[in-house]
Amino acid sequence: MKTKLLIPILMFTALAFVAHAQTVTAQPLNLQISSSKTLSGTAGDFVAVTGTITNTSSQQLQGVTTYLSLSDNQTHKPVDLEDWSAEKGLYVGTIDAGATLPLNWKIHFVTAGDYSLIIVAETIGNPTPQVSEITQFHVAPKKNLNPAQVLPVALGVPILLVFALFLLAYRRKVDE
Amino acid sequence: MKKSLTIWKKELRGEFYTWKSMLWLVIASLTFSLTSYLLLTNKELSLLDQTELMWLLSKVIVGIAFLVTALDAASIITTEFDKDTAENLFLSPISLADLMIGKFLAVLTLWAAIFLVAIPYIIVASAGSGLTLAFMGHVALLGTLGVSAFTVLIFALSLLFRTGKNTITTSLIALLALGIPATFASTLKNDPVSQLLAHVNPMDAIFSSLDNVLVDYHTSVLQNWQYIVAVVGFLAVSLVFLYVSTRIFAKQGIVKND
Fold this sequence. Notes:
The complex is a heterodimer of chains A (176) and B (258).
Chain A: H1 2-25, E1 29-33, E2 38-42, E3 46-55, E4 61-72, E5 89-95, E6 100-108, E7 113-122, E8 130-131, E9 135-140, H2 147-175
Parallel strand pairs in A: 2-9
Antiparallel strand pairs in A: 1-3, 3-6, 4-5, 4-7, 7-8, 7-9
Chain B: H1 2-16, H2 23-41, H3 50-76, H4 78-82, H5 86-91, H6 96-126, H7 132-161, H8 164-182, H9 192-200, H10 202-214, H11 225-252
């Protein structure tokens, strides 16, 4: 009885392993980053992340989508790309067998810090997405206004005016 | 002219004598402080170039000035009607022109006070850009022309309405009607109608001129003539409107029979 049950379980497990192995080994897409692996700049700067996507399989691939994934190296949390890139994803569509297509993103450095960017590609019918190598961003803070000049004025002028008003009120009281 | 100066001094005493009457100036300075603080610390705003920050600050200065002077202009004449002092005032040997000039100078003094308070902010925001004098000069020129035009327009409305409530409401609506489209991005002004409106809207002309000076470095008056002409044109139209409303006022008499 045990043997009767064990054989189908083993067969099922083996089939699952085979299916999984086929999924893992079948990597029809290849993502390559052609821009520098480390991009540095000041907050507010724009940089270009370029790369290519290649269909390494012998069949045409349909419904190919690529998108960016950015994470903060300090907090280890994903970053909302809303302000960083106008195009979070690029719909590639169909790629012929063996064909290579360019990928190009214009990235706006928003906040100072260190970040990791990867490009993710997924294809309809392929449950495993593919990722590119990591591009490191080093974003330096941008200071247009000098805080040492602005803050004394921002605090000082209202305080001076309030002082002047008190003086005015006091003078009026003395006059009366 | 002497009578105008007397009225001006009397109005100034009312405007600046008590601490309550000057509290708006503190609030204006707090608004400039808050703007400067945001320009320094806000994630999105701090990404802008210094010239863009200066342009933003210039719009806040002009916007605050227009709001304060519009409210003052809308009440400075109508208060005489609301408090029933108009009859006595016009029976005294003061002409309508003297009264208008005196009150006009009082409103311009408020603008001068706002500009004086704004000067430290202008200096620190433009430090290192080489545009400090151009910043100050164009804000002073365009602000004075704009405030003058709006004040004249509101005086004309005051003589027609003779009530503070209606004049203030209409003035604020007029200010918003001209001010809101002026803040739209240039990409929203691509069609011919929007472009025509942008050319005749004095607020749009002021903001565009400040953009031309502070962002595009076109700092001379000649390089901004088309914007200045638009504001001067608005002032001329307001003066004609005031002339017409004074004629109507004189015809109706001090005590209006509705």
